[in-house]
From TrEMBL:
The keyword S-adenosyl-L-methionine does not apply. Keywords: Glycosyltransferase, Transferase. This is Glycosyltransferase CsbB. It comes from the Bacteria. Residues 4-170 form the Glycosyltransferase 2-like domain. Its EC number is 2.4.-.-. The gene is csbB. InterPro entries: Glyco_trans_2-like, Glycosyltransferase_2, Nucleotide-diphossugar_trans. GO terms for molecular function: glycosyltransferase activity. It is an enzyme of class 2 (transferase).
Amino acid sequence: MLLSVVIPAYNEEKNIGATIHALASELDRNEIPFEIVVANDNSKDRTEAVLQELSADDARVRYINCSPPNGFGRAIRTGLSAARGDYIVVYMADLSDHPDDVVAYYRKLEEGYDCVFGSRFIEGSKVEDYPRVKYVVNRIVNYSLKWLFWCKFNDLTNAFKGYRREVIEACGPYCASHFNITVEMSLSALIRNYTITQIPIKWSGRTWGESNLRLSAMGRRYMSTFIKVFAERILIHDDVIAEKLSSKRKSSKSEEVLNYRLVTLEGEIQEVGSRLAKIEQDENIKKAA
């Protein structure tokens, strides 16, 4: 299965090269077929020039220049529309996410899960240089989401997640233009009852440049997304239940057909055994005569 890693990038000239080299090396080492799709979000530095060099060196690396205005969510939407893979992972350009976690996501999707949500705040995770104020806000928001959507996932606001292509297609088109797309994507999958697993991941604070997340500007955007998805959950509830029941019926019907075929096969095997025994008996009689 082809993996598409979608990377939104804004003014990441010092990070994007190291990010892509580390990611490609780890995926190659684990023999995972992949493409890297970078959405250049109207960068004002040399990000595009670096991407030109990287894509010239490796055909599996592609980049798209986003149309203005810029926005984290718009960049992700642009990257998703260009992705060709069966599995899709959203990955950060600033070296905060770790390549071996992408491999772990891929393996979980191979196991059959529809989505893989990484968490920086469960046993086994590792976080370095997380800003204190952002940590407090993150915990408040995520605990609120756990309560509001009655789920076990505790890092829904993290962009770094993995999805099957059909999940992206069923939940889209997405509307969020900024960092609120992180919760729009995760919650849209959650309310549709896709199979989701949560695994511990590593996260490191950026070593160069500044974060593009502005907490003061994101409050109303996150709130509008929460309201949108919560209302959507209510509106599609009947459809989700109907699809689940239909899936159970199909599964039950498949089991009935399988059981019937097994019984039929068992009868045919017994019949063949009886015929072979009869042939052997006839041959013994002939030899005795």
